[in-house]
Amino acid sequence: MFMKKLVEKATKKYNGGGGINGLKAEEVRPRLVFHYGVPPESSSLAYDPIQHILAISTRNGVIKLLGKDDSQALLQSEAAAPSKFLQFMENRGILLNVTSHNHIEVWNIDKKQITHVHIFNGEITSFVVVQQSFYIYVGDCLGNITVLKLDNTLQCLVKMPYKIPPSESCGTQTEADSDTAVIFSSPQPMAESKRVLIIFRNGLISLWGIQESKVLLVAGGNAQHSSQEPKLVVSASWACVFGSKVVVGYSSGDIFLWAIPVFLDHNSEAPWNHKDSYASQNVPLLKLNLGYKMDKVPIVSLRWFAHDESSGHLYVNGFSDSGSSHSFQVIIINESTQTRTIKLVLPLTEPCLGMEIVSCFSNQSKNRQNTLVLLLRSGCLCLYDDSAIEQYLLHCQSKSPPTLPKQFIVTLPFGDSRITVAKLYIGPSSPVEESVAMQDQIFLPNKYSSLFSMNMKEKDGSRRSSAHFSGFSKAKNLLVTGHVDGAINFWDASCPLLFPLLSIEQQFNESCASSTAPVTSLHFDVSSHILVSGDQSGSIRIFSFKKVQETSESIFSFLQAKQGDNYTVHNVNLRGAIMSISMNMDSKLLAVGTDKGYVSVIQMEGTTILYQKQIPGQVYSGIMSLQFVNHGQNGSEKSILMVGMEDSSVLALEEDSGHALSANPVKTKKTCKALLMHILDASPNGVWTSDYVDTSKQSYSKQLMQKQPLVLICSENAIRLYALIHVLQGIKKVYSKKKLDGSCCYASIIHGSSLDVGLALVFSCGKMEIRSLLDLAVLNEVSLRGLIYPTLKSPPNAISVFCVSSEGEFLLVNGDQAMLFLSLLSHREIYRHLEYITNVYTEGLAPQEGTSRMKNPQKERKKGIFSMVVKDLKGNKTKHSKETDADESIVNNEDVELDIDDIDLEDTKEKHKGLNLAVLDKQKLGKKLHALKGTVGKLKLNIEEKMNSRKDKHEEEKDISAVDKIKQKYGYATNDESNTVQMAESKLRENVIKLKAIGLRTTEMQNTAQTFSSMAKELLQSTQGSKTSLRV
């Protein structure tokens, strides 16, 4: 039944009396379905270590999000501006993007939309988010520090009435003509709400006290340099978990390590390093000599990641503007760094634009794996195993030094080599089948090849070949791809995450010059189970798959047999690279066109060449398209082979002999490169007759021409329609012509629900147009960003590969980096319920241990970042800003909510021996016990309310959704399984046990307090008695 539907669709049998009907505007709705891979022109990276989301910004305004379990999303703003700074508000679902226009975009990751755009008045040179808060430090080119706050309810940025001008932050070392642009501004670790470090471009380092509203430290500056050429700061990073060291990179290639004072309080456990006394002097702690200074390579970026409390790894990235000199190094920063430098130079072939340490978690082992992600200038992502880097640094000075860490380039996991040609086939399906396919889309993505998986690569760095998979009997859509190495792969395209079905490797051919020539053309006839491929060397391979009984739900079940046993292959060698292939299953003939202008007709049964004919071209000599046409005249039917040349000329040949029906082909006045030739057949049975056509007339009505077959020629700059009868006679008469606005790089025919015909065009600028036939009017257009499109000078299939099904499903492959899925028509949705692979954000995710980049051993309790300056904003005279009218509704103290999990029942502090009456205060102790009793009572009430609400919710959610039914049918766990309820109840029981223990401890403390009180009274009485006796 399915095969019959597909054959009817393939033969395009029209209902009624015939005629060419164009697409309607209401049938067209181009939209992006899914973007897979890394977008081109990538420029910067950002990472959320709690949500495990990697963000990649591009120079055309596109932001790609890569999350756990291969979930991916694409963010596109209307303003296609490059990104300057990109940062997450960790675990809040907010991404902040600073564009080159100094606009700050607030992205809601869950909704994938911009909620606010803050227009900053000035050039932003520094941008940092104070994590675990809603505050942002923005530094500008004039040296000002502006504080912004995110309104979490409205998700918009609010400018705070707190500003640090350079006249105050630079102290007494302000120079009128110096470059005071802020390069680095970051809160000091362990004192985020009290200190902020500001580093200016001129080298000045300033530690600002928020509570004191004054400068606490001033160091550095160009005044210290003895050389005539000043050193400009390019990058900086903290180099200590306690905030006592900062590393600064300069434009001259110098790297200095500066000491920053840590103002300790009595509760802090941070050790005071005696070397920090150098901070009072204008001398750095350490000057790192890594070879950058010799060639004056600017230190573009510095990142430091803690290994433990006393050491860490410093990642140094330096390259010149031209890119001729570049180096990326990793060094160990610890107490012995001053005497020796342990470093690793990564062998990068091009400069690095961005770096991040990404934590990957395996679902099976739950082991954390850190990966160094480098963004190269070409837009590729380069991966290094961070544990391998650490092992190298630890053993590089041993007698047997280890090998360099292995480098991995992120590419599409679809074959061992780049895709050069693709064909997409959409099978028929009913709503019930689409519902089953939805279930597959929900649960199968975890089994797909991951984009960042380094385990599926061999030792030589190449990916493993796509093995044959036998469990694809439910595949509804099929994608066939040809690759650079000559391999042909079959993929289940029911979900945008392609699943491998079958792989056919290139076999060595003695008569062929190359055994791994790239595949240049594919033609797959699903009804006859015949696949024909052509490659760059001129080799034709004909695969005949064995027919099997249709017992499976899929029309592609014939691919399910054991690899090698389910098909036979025949080879034919021709002259030139294969450009076009066409089949006539009635006559069992195969037509092949090459780039040398040869047209070859082959008998498929015996693989004998019936004839070869070379057609000379003017500028372009290739055979762009071939198509068989049945022509009926004088009661007899005759098959004709239509030949579309690459120079936009058209010629008709007799199928069996190859003789031209006219002396001269139909040509255009100006030679232009053709992209598509297609015969628009208006006959109801596929056989066109010209018995009633009067060719002597010079013009025909539109009604008459609409019922005649037409030849569509689409070139780079125009679309032309010819009457087929005129082409057969060699008459150059254009029925319709439309000039294109731009350079077109791809064209394809699409069909609507009632087989209405339309034309899809893709332009080099990224624009896509959908036009109707026959009037060639534009029905809809859309701008496609996230891919690189070929130009006139690009070689075939060098950058992008286009593929479209007759149903309007579009696939664009950008080399081995990205793949774009689009749907052009509105009558059918073959990709549904994609939220499971497009949702990168997880609501309510708790931070895991070790996710913090600085790994602070003991962070201060957040009391509101700027709560210290509320008094100063209200009444005190401030030096740091003229904006002293503060509003308490804007600057709020962040209340700390007490949680049951924060209560520790164990005594961690050391108990002093004996009774210290000096610190014993009965009244204070009673107040504390009373407050603790009230807190315990509130916690008990909250737990009882949670238990009651959970029971009510569990009783209300009895209705099982359709998705849950499907999950239960296939043995998968539903969303509301009892294990979640059991875990919650277990957690509540633990909290109740804690509360009971707290009650016991409270009673013990009361008894102890009473005992202490009685003992104190007795001691007091005895003391008074002894004093009285002494007086007597």
Automatic annotation (TrEMBL):
Gene Ontology biological-process entries: exocytosis; Golgi to plasma membrane transport
Keyword DNA repair: no
A single GO cellular-component term on record: plasma membrane
Residue ranges crossing the lipid bilayer per the database entry: none
CDD domains, sorted: R-SNARE_STXBP5_6
Family to which the UniProt record says this protein belongs: Belongs to the WD repeat L(2)GL family.
Protein name: Lethal giant larvae (Lgl)-like C-terminal domain-containing protein
GO molecular function terms noted in the UniProt entry: GTPase activator activity; myosin II binding; syntaxin binding
Provenance organism: Ensete ventricosum
High-level lineage: Eukaryota, Viridiplantae, Streptophyta, Embryophyta, Tracheophyta
Keyword line: Exocytosis
